[in-house]
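hi!! sorry for the late reply, been swamped w classes. u asked for the two structures so here they r. pasted raw, havent cleaned anything up. first the sequence of the first protein and right below it the tokens
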Amino acid sequence: MKLLILGGTLFLGRALVEAALARSHEVTVFHRGRHRKEPIPGVESLLGDRDGRLDALAGREWDAVVDTSGYVPRLVRASAELLAERVRRYIFVSSISVYADFSRPTPEDAALATMPESEQEEVTGATYGPLKVLSEKAVAETLPERALIVRPGLIVGPHDPTNRFTYWTGRVARGGEVLAPGSPEAPVQFIDVRDLGQWLVRMIEREEVGTYNATGPDRLLTMADFLDGCRAASASDARFTWVSEQFLAEQGVAPWSELPLWLPASTGTHAYFSRTDIGPALAAGLAFRPLGETIRDTLAWQRGRVDRKLPEKAGVPMPDVALAAEREHALLEAWHRQGET
């Protein structure tokens, strides 16, 4: 097959390229040239910009396009309209953040977040999900019955441009006393970027359409399981001190950003954020490598990484805001003092 990837040089795009090449497909990537200057071996590279510089895509045909870089509905619609008569399938990578209410289960037909279809295009924590909803709508309207909408949860693994999953792999590997948030039994979900990329390629080969949640694993994974996995994979001497949600709230610790993967259970508003239903994706062949492999490979990439600068995503630098060592130490000291009184 001939595949076009809109954004194929960073994280998921990179994994898609590798998965497609491994199955002998012909791959073209369309990107701005900001994050990778040198050619990708065996891959055709087209330079341009989704905002008004799509000329390189004109007059070409592909079997399918995978849109990994669509965040603004106007720009997603522009690429969908340009490619509608040039591709057989349009695969749009969305997010589970599209759902309106995480206090209840979120199957694919659950209510979606809303916002006015205006000129609001700034991608923020509040607008990310609704903008993805409108982007999904643009693809579905432009290519009816030819669109595959995939809604991943947290994507992790080597080349991760965020400091969420990698905060924990790196922190546990350093060892010592580690602040662990909330309950050890709290569920967590994420998907290895390579598992997602390989599954997407197989879905394209079968010409699947429709909408799928795509996160993992295929069993309940608790925060304690995950942290124990990090300790085992790194062979560190880490010991976990579980700190209550009330204390963390009193200390102003920001869930998910300062302590990634943690969302307070006490409010109930995110009760199902880490319990997303992935039954349809499992039935469609989504499979997962062992957790230890994901952790070990991610940690090996972290340790060998030279450039520590976080790349831009959706035109906005992704902040490195996870808990600093000094703040973690101060919080642990305060937690222990509280226990002594």
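now the second protein. again sequence first, tokens right under
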Amino acid sequence: MSRPNVVIIVADDLGPLTIAPTSPLPLPNLRALHDESLVFEDAHAPAALCAPGRYALMTGNLPLRSRTGGGEWGWPAPSALRPGQRSIAQLLRDGGGYHTQFGGKWHLGGDPIDTGFDGALFVAKGHNFPPYATLLRGVGIRRPPECSTNDGDGSKDSPATSAWRAALPNCLAARARHVLRSAPLPFLYYHSASQKHGPYEAGVGMTQLGTVANASGFGPRFDAVVSLDLAVGTVLDALNARSITESTVLVLTSDHGQDCEWQHVSNRKVVCPSALSTDRTRSFDAFAGMRGYKGTFFEGGLRVPLWVRWPGRIPARVSRATTATIDYVRTLLSMLRVEVLSTDAVDSVDLSQEWSSHSSLAQSARNVFVANGPAGITVRVDQLKAHFRLFSPGCQWNQTTPFVRGCFRALSLIDLSVDPLERDNKLATLPGAAQCIRNVLLSTTNSASPPSRADYDCTH
């Protein structure tokens, strides 16, 4: 039996409620994909910011295992992947004979070709950081005519940079269309969307894949989500045109949780207010029941969409079980019958039995969820969630020696079952639970292979 193709779509700054069926935004392509997919409503990212989140999604490793311990923010710079670490592209190419292509935001340092891709049209750090340019790597890779003929001039707010940025969604959609219609089978196409990261100047809102200004009814930030929907439509149409929809597995997720309007972030508000429609007649709460947003370790900064469509293999349904987005790496490779070594995807759990089941589980086999940033880390065990910071100067994420208890100082302990807005710090009243979660953290950070068990009990 031939292997199916793989399409991975990673959106930017996208929370699950923004594209849920309850969203007021006009998203027909995403609605159709939702109805055909396994949809996790409580999926958790391994980071609250771009670079570490993208490293984790590319490798199945927590960001703390990257070369820097928190992804790679610079360009040019060495790869975020340490020597010997393999990306999902390398695993599919080496173990499954896949042709691999990349399009979009990179933010991993190094070179896509050295990370397992046969070709790439990529933006080194996204459209909000220099260099403002679409870069080409690989034999025969060409810039589609939909791309801007000129790159930005290096100035963030110049007309040239704005024109390049405005053309980028069309450029990446054209790249996706070309790859999906012509790549040798089986293929991996990793589409790292530019939507919906800011800036959101009017020019972008008017030219993203034909999206008119205020197409969402909620202003430029959400116009970008409508643009993402059109990009998803381009992917779906290309698969249909080649008659490979049934033989393609498609994964949709985001690098981290939803962003919040900058004025609220700068004012240090911890709950992002509802968005107000431009005619001021409607409101839209993209954080219902969650505190925090992008850049924070609260649930609003870590909850993301995770949708998987594989016709005939993964039943379409909604799962409310909490899951980790990085589990898609080992789970998918297991279902594709691609060998994965114990040194690959170290923090990814094989949940293939759950994914292929026709029933929706209330509790996944995994109940531990970890996310880390430069100096902090949050660990959730079931409904208990503790936040720690690196305490000792001798403890660094990218160290090669084992971590010890003194490396981590607990800052908070939250019981999400009774405190979903994460306001009541129970660290003083539940010291045993905090110690248990610290032990889980040590077990995770000191492991050099995927967890043999994905469940722990810190309630007693």
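hope this helps!! also noticed smth abt the second:
The chain has two domains: 5-356, 375-445.
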